[in-house]
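can u do me a favor
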Protein backbone atom coordinates (compact mmCIF):
# COMPACT_ATOMS: atom_id res chain seq x y z
CA UNK A 1 0.00 0.00 0.00
CA UNK A 2 1.16 3.61 -0.53
CA UNK A 3 3.07 4.98 2.46
CA UNK A 4 0.93 8.14 2.51
CA UNK A 5 -2.77 9.05 2.28
CA UNK A 6 -4.09 9.03 -1.28
CA UNK A 7 -6.62 11.05 -3.26
CA UNK A 8 -9.30 9.11 -5.09
CA UNK A 9 -10.26 10.97 -8.27
CA UNK A 10 -13.34 8.90 -9.17
CA UNK A 11 -16.00 7.98 -6.62
CA UNK A 12 -19.76 7.57 -7.06
CA UNK A 13 -22.11 8.39 -4.17
CA UNK A 14 -25.87 8.14 -4.46
CA UNK A 15 -29.16 7.93 -2.57
CA UNK A 16 -31.78 5.81 -4.31
CA UNK A 17 -34.47 7.07 -1.92
CA UNK A 18 -33.83 10.66 -2.91
CA UNK A 19 -32.99 10.48 -6.62
CA UNK A 20 -33.67 8.10 -9.53
CA UNK A 21 -30.92 6.18 -11.30
CA UNK A 22 -32.61 3.94 -13.85
CA UNK A 23 -29.41 2.15 -14.87
CA UNK A 24 -28.97 0.69 -11.39
CA UNK A 25 -31.85 -1.72 -12.01
CA UNK A 26 -29.52 -3.76 -14.22
CA UNK A 27 -26.86 -4.05 -11.49
CA UNK A 28 -28.70 -5.20 -8.36
CA UNK A 29 -25.44 -5.76 -6.49
CA UNK A 30 -24.94 -1.99 -6.15
CA UNK A 31 -28.58 -0.91 -6.46
CA UNK A 32 -28.84 0.64 -3.00
CA UNK A 33 -27.76 3.89 -1.42
CA UNK A 34 -24.01 4.31 -1.12
CA UNK A 35 -22.59 7.17 0.94
CA UNK A 36 -19.44 7.87 2.89
CA UNK A 37 -20.20 5.26 5.55
CA UNK A 38 -20.29 2.55 2.88
CA UNK A 39 -17.19 4.02 1.25
CA UNK A 40 -15.28 3.80 4.52
CA UNK A 41 -16.19 0.14 4.87
CA UNK A 42 -15.17 -0.56 1.26
CA UNK A 43 -11.80 1.19 1.41
CA UNK A 44 -10.75 -0.89 4.39
CA UNK A 45 -7.16 -0.12 5.43
CA UNK A 46 -6.53 2.30 2.54
CA UNK A 47 -6.01 5.85 3.83
CA UNK A 48 -8.01 8.17 1.55
CA UNK A 49 -7.46 11.80 2.43
CA UNK A 50 -9.79 13.30 -0.18
CA UNK A 51 -11.99 12.18 -3.04
CA UNK A 52 -13.60 13.55 -6.17
CA UNK A 53 -17.27 12.76 -6.70
CA UNK A 54 -18.16 11.96 -10.32
CA UNK A 55 -21.75 12.11 -11.56
CA UNK A 56 -23.69 8.85 -11.44
CA UNK A 57 -25.88 9.05 -14.56
CA UNK A 58 -28.89 10.23 -12.60
CA UNK A 59 -32.12 10.14 -14.61
CA UNK A 60 -32.57 12.95 -17.17
CA UNK A 61 -33.47 16.32 -15.75
CA UNK A 62 -32.17 15.58 -12.24
CA UNK A 63 -28.56 16.76 -12.61
CA UNK A 64 -29.06 19.96 -10.62
CA UNK A 65 -30.70 18.00 -7.81
CA UNK A 66 -27.83 15.51 -7.85
CA UNK A 67 -25.29 18.31 -7.55
CA UNK A 68 -27.18 19.86 -4.64
CA UNK A 69 -27.35 16.45 -2.93
CA UNK A 70 -23.60 15.93 -3.29
CA UNK A 71 -22.84 19.44 -2.08
CA UNK A 72 -24.82 18.62 1.04
CA UNK A 73 -22.64 15.55 1.56
CA UNK A 74 -19.50 17.61 1.05
CA UNK A 75 -20.66 20.21 3.55
CA UNK A 76 -20.81 17.44 6.15
CA UNK A 77 -17.64 15.58 5.14
CA UNK A 78 -14.69 17.66 3.88
CA UNK A 79 -13.08 14.58 2.37
CA UNK A 80 -15.49 15.09 -0.55
CA UNK A 81 -13.22 17.78 -1.93
CA UNK A 82 -14.53 18.20 -5.47
CA UNK A 83 -17.48 17.42 -7.72
CA UNK A 84 -17.67 16.52 -11.41
CA UNK A 85 -21.33 17.03 -12.26
CA UNK A 86 -23.42 16.22 -15.31
CA UNK A 87 -24.32 19.05 -17.66
CA UNK A 88 -26.08 18.72 -21.04
CA UNK A 89 -23.27 20.25 -23.07
CA UNK A 90 -24.95 19.03 -26.25
CA UNK A 91 -27.31 22.00 -25.79
CA UNK A 92 -24.47 24.14 -27.10
CA UNK A 93 -24.27 27.70 -25.85
CA UNK A 94 -27.60 27.18 -24.08
CA UNK A 95 -25.79 25.04 -21.48
CA UNK A 96 -24.63 28.30 -19.91
CA UNK A 97 -27.73 28.40 -17.71
CA UNK A 98 -26.93 24.91 -16.39
CA UNK A 99 -23.33 25.87 -15.70
CA UNK A 100 -24.33 28.99 -13.80
CA UNK A 101 -26.78 26.96 -11.71
CA UNK A 102 -24.22 24.22 -11.05
CA UNK A 103 -21.57 26.71 -9.99
CA UNK A 104 -23.71 27.63 -7.00
CA UNK A 105 -22.28 24.43 -5.54
CA UNK A 106 -18.88 25.39 -4.15
CA UNK A 107 -17.39 21.92 -4.78
CA UNK A 108 -17.96 21.98 -8.54
CA UNK A 109 -14.72 21.60 -10.49
CA UNK A 110 -15.73 19.77 -13.64
CA UNK A 111 -18.42 18.42 -15.96
CA UNK A 112 -19.12 15.02 -17.43
CA UNK A 113 -21.63 14.17 -20.10
CA UNK A 114 -21.44 10.42 -20.77
CA UNK A 115 -20.54 9.38 -24.30
CA UNK A 116 -20.01 5.65 -23.71
CA UNK A 117 -23.69 4.80 -24.25
CA UNK A 118 -24.02 6.65 -27.53
CA UNK A 119 -24.48 4.32 -30.54
CA UNK A 120 -23.08 7.13 -32.69
CA UNK A 121 -20.09 8.62 -30.82
CA UNK A 122 -19.76 11.38 -33.40
CA UNK A 123 -22.30 13.17 -31.23
CA UNK A 124 -19.35 14.47 -29.21
CA UNK A 125 -17.92 16.33 -32.19
CA UNK A 126 -21.25 17.75 -33.35
CA UNK A 127 -21.26 21.58 -33.44
CA UNK A 128 -23.51 22.02 -30.40
CA UNK A 129 -21.54 19.53 -28.30
CA UNK A 130 -18.28 21.28 -29.14
CA UNK A 131 -19.80 24.69 -28.39
CA UNK A 132 -21.08 23.46 -25.03
CA UNK A 133 -17.74 21.97 -24.02
CA UNK A 134 -15.91 25.12 -25.04
CA UNK A 135 -18.09 27.03 -22.58
CA UNK A 136 -16.32 25.22 -19.73
CA UNK A 137 -13.06 27.09 -20.24
CA UNK A 138 -14.52 30.43 -19.18
CA UNK A 139 -15.76 28.83 -15.97
CA UNK A 140 -12.48 27.07 -15.22
CA UNK A 141 -14.18 23.66 -15.40
CA UNK A 142 -12.68 20.39 -16.61
CA UNK A 143 -14.45 17.85 -18.82
CA UNK A 144 -14.32 14.13 -18.04
CA UNK A 145 -14.38 12.02 -21.20
CA UNK A 146 -16.04 8.65 -20.64
CA UNK A 147 -15.90 6.56 -23.81
CA UNK A 148 -15.41 2.95 -24.79
CA UNK A 149 -12.36 2.04 -26.81
CA UNK A 150 -14.21 1.94 -30.13
CA UNK A 151 -15.25 5.56 -29.53
CA UNK A 152 -11.79 6.78 -28.59
CA UNK A 153 -10.99 8.38 -31.94
CA UNK A 154 -13.86 10.80 -31.37
CA UNK A 155 -12.51 11.65 -27.92
CA UNK A 156 -9.19 12.56 -29.50
CA UNK A 157 -10.95 14.86 -31.94
CA UNK A 158 -13.05 16.45 -29.17
CA UNK A 159 -9.95 17.30 -27.13
CA UNK A 160 -8.19 18.60 -30.22
CA UNK A 161 -11.07 20.93 -31.12
CA UNK A 162 -11.28 22.39 -27.59
CA UNK A 163 -7.66 23.30 -26.79
CA UNK A 164 -8.61 25.72 -24.00
CA UNK A 165 -10.50 23.04 -22.04
CA UNK A 166 -8.76 20.64 -19.65
CA UNK A 167 -9.83 17.05 -20.33
CA UNK A 168 -9.67 13.97 -18.13
CA UNK A 169 -9.93 10.61 -19.90
CA UNK A 170 -11.86 8.27 -17.61
CA UNK A 171 -11.01 4.59 -17.19
CA UNK A 172 -8.05 4.69 -19.62
CA UNK A 173 -10.52 4.77 -22.51
CA UNK A 174 -12.10 1.41 -21.63
CA UNK A 175 -9.98 -0.93 -23.78
CA UNK A 176 -11.65 -4.23 -24.64
CA UNK A 177 -9.33 -6.22 -22.40
CA UNK A 178 -11.65 -9.23 -22.22
CA UNK A 179 -11.05 -9.79 -25.93
CA UNK A 180 -7.35 -9.01 -25.82
CA UNK A 181 -7.56 -5.61 -27.50
CA UNK A 182 -4.29 -3.77 -27.91
CA UNK A 183 -4.73 -1.75 -31.11
CA UNK A 184 -5.96 0.75 -32.04
CA UNK A 185 -6.34 1.60 -28.33
CA UNK A 186 -2.59 1.72 -27.76
CA UNK A 187 -1.98 4.15 -30.63
CA UNK A 188 -4.94 6.33 -29.72
CA UNK A 189 -3.72 6.63 -26.12
CA UNK A 190 -0.41 7.85 -27.51
CA UNK A 191 -2.27 10.32 -29.70
CA UNK A 192 -4.26 11.68 -26.76
CA UNK A 193 -1.13 11.95 -24.65
CA UNK A 194 0.40 14.24 -27.27
CA UNK A 195 -2.35 16.77 -26.52
CA UNK A 196 -1.21 18.94 -23.59
CA UNK A 197 -4.78 19.56 -22.37
CA UNK A 198 -5.47 15.88 -21.54
CA UNK A 199 -4.70 13.77 -18.47
CA UNK A 200 -5.67 10.13 -17.94
CA UNK A 201 -7.49 8.58 -15.02
CA UNK A 202 -6.28 5.08 -14.13
CA UNK A 203 -9.63 3.72 -13.03
CA UNK A 204 -12.32 1.30 -14.15
CA UNK A 205 -9.81 -1.06 -15.73
CA UNK A 206 -10.73 -4.39 -14.15
CA UNK A 207 -14.37 -3.96 -15.19
CA UNK A 208 -13.21 -4.25 -18.82
CA UNK A 209 -11.68 -7.69 -18.28
CA UNK A 210 -13.20 -11.15 -18.30
CA UNK A 211 -14.60 -11.04 -14.80
CA UNK A 212 -14.09 -14.76 -14.21
CA UNK A 213 -10.51 -15.13 -15.39
CA UNK A 214 -8.71 -11.79 -14.88
CA UNK A 215 -5.54 -11.53 -12.82
CA UNK A 216 -3.29 -8.57 -11.92
CA UNK A 217 -1.11 -9.56 -14.88
CA UNK A 218 -4.12 -9.05 -17.19
CA UNK A 219 -4.36 -5.32 -16.48
CA UNK A 220 -0.69 -4.55 -15.93
CA UNK A 221 0.34 -3.90 -19.58
CA UNK A 222 -2.58 -1.51 -20.08
CA UNK A 223 -1.72 0.51 -16.97
CA UNK A 224 1.96 0.53 -17.90
CA UNK A 225 1.17 1.82 -21.38
CA UNK A 226 -0.86 4.71 -19.93
CA UNK A 227 1.95 5.62 -17.55
CA UNK A 228 4.50 5.40 -20.33
CA UNK A 229 2.36 7.59 -22.59
CA UNK A 230 1.17 10.25 -20.16
CA UNK A 231 3.86 10.11 -17.49
CA UNK A 232 3.20 10.21 -13.78
CA UNK A 233 2.48 13.94 -13.80
CA UNK A 234 -0.49 13.42 -16.15
CA UNK A 235 -1.92 10.18 -14.78
CA UNK A 236 -4.07 9.96 -11.66
CA UNK A 237 -5.54 7.24 -9.48
CA UNK A 238 -9.26 6.54 -9.42
CA UNK A 239 -11.22 3.70 -7.85
CA UNK A 240 -14.50 3.91 -9.81
CA UNK A 241 -16.26 2.91 -6.60
CA UNK A 242 -19.10 1.75 -6.48
CA UNK A 243 -18.96 0.23 -9.98
CA UNK A 244 -15.70 -1.39 -8.93
CA UNK A 245 -17.63 -3.54 -6.46
CA UNK A 246 -18.91 -5.58 -9.40
CA UNK A 247 -15.48 -7.08 -9.97
CA UNK A 248 -13.10 -6.45 -7.07
CA UNK A 249 -12.52 -4.97 -3.63
CA UNK A 250 -11.20 -1.45 -3.20
CA UNK A 251 -7.94 -2.47 -1.46
CA UNK A 252 -7.24 -5.01 -4.22
CA UNK A 253 -7.12 -2.30 -6.90
CA UNK A 254 -4.86 -0.15 -4.74
CA UNK A 255 -2.56 -3.12 -4.15
CA UNK A 256 -2.42 -3.95 -7.88
CA UNK A 257 -1.47 -0.40 -8.80
CA UNK A 258 1.02 -0.20 -5.94
CA UNK A 259 2.67 -3.28 -7.39
CA UNK A 260 3.03 -1.44 -10.72
CA UNK A 261 4.10 2.02 -9.55
CA UNK A 262 5.81 1.01 -6.30
CA UNK A 263 9.27 0.96 -7.89
CA UNK A 264 8.92 4.53 -9.22
CA UNK A 265 10.50 7.46 -7.42
CA UNK A 266 8.74 8.99 -4.43
CA UNK A 267 7.97 12.08 -6.52
CA UNK A 268 6.40 9.97 -9.26
CA UNK A 269 4.38 7.93 -6.82
CA UNK A 270 3.03 11.03 -5.10
CA UNK A 271 2.13 12.48 -8.49
CA UNK A 272 0.11 9.39 -9.36
CA UNK A 273 -1.62 8.92 -6.01
CA UNK A 274 -2.08 12.60 -5.11
CA UNK A 275 -0.47 15.48 -6.95
CA UNK A 276 -1.98 15.05 -10.41
CA UNK A 277 -5.47 14.98 -8.88
CA UNK A 278 -4.67 18.08 -6.82
CA UNK A 279 -3.48 19.93 -9.90
CA UNK A 280 -6.26 18.68 -12.19
CA UNK A 281 -9.24 19.18 -9.91
CA UNK A 282 -7.88 21.72 -7.44
CA UNK A 283 -8.68 19.55 -4.43
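np, heres the sequence
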Amino acid sequence: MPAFPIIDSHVHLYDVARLSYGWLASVPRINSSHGMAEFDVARGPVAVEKLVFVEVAVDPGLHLQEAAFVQGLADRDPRIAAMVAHAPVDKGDAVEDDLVALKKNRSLVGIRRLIQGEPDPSVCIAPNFIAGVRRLAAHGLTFDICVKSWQLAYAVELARRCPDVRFVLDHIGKPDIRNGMIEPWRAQIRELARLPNVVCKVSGVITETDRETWTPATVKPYVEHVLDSFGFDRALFGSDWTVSELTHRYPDWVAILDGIVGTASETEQKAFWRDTAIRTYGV
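The longest helix spans residues 266-281. hope that helps!!
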